[in-house]
Amino acid sequence: MADLNKLVAAVKAHASANYNKDGWDNIVECWGDEDIQQAILVAKDEEAAIHTMWQIARQYRQREDDVMCQSGEHVKCPKCEGWIYIDDLERHNQRNCG
Question: Of 30, 64, 65, 86, which residue is the least packed, with the fewest Cβ within 10 Å?
Answer without folding.
Answer: 30
